[in-house]
């Protein structure tokens, strides 16, 4: 392995912005704790678990039943 590398001609990955986008979500502590507990059991970071769950909901067109009583 070299001690130094020359990155002066390096180019930014053009596909990097298509992979994921950083956003801010406000989640309650119970939801965060739930995914953190599961992440400890399966060995996947909790942010990745939340992303996988949301992708599954979107793929299956799952919707909440928001009926107020």
UniProtKB/TrEMBL annotation:
Which InterPro entries would you find in this protein's record? BrnA_antitoxin
Q: Which domain of life is it from?
A: Bacteria
Q: This protein is called what?
A: BrnA antitoxin family protein
């Amino acid at each position: 392995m070299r001690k130094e590398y020359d990155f002066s001609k390096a180019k930014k990955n053009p596909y990097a912005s298509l992979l994921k986008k950083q956003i801010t979500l406000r989640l309650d502590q119970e939801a965060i704790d739930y995914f953190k507990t599961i992440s400890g059991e399966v060995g996947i970071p909790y942010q990745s678990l939340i992303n996988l769950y949301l992708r599954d909901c979107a793929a299956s067109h799952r919707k909440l039943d928001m009926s107020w009583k």
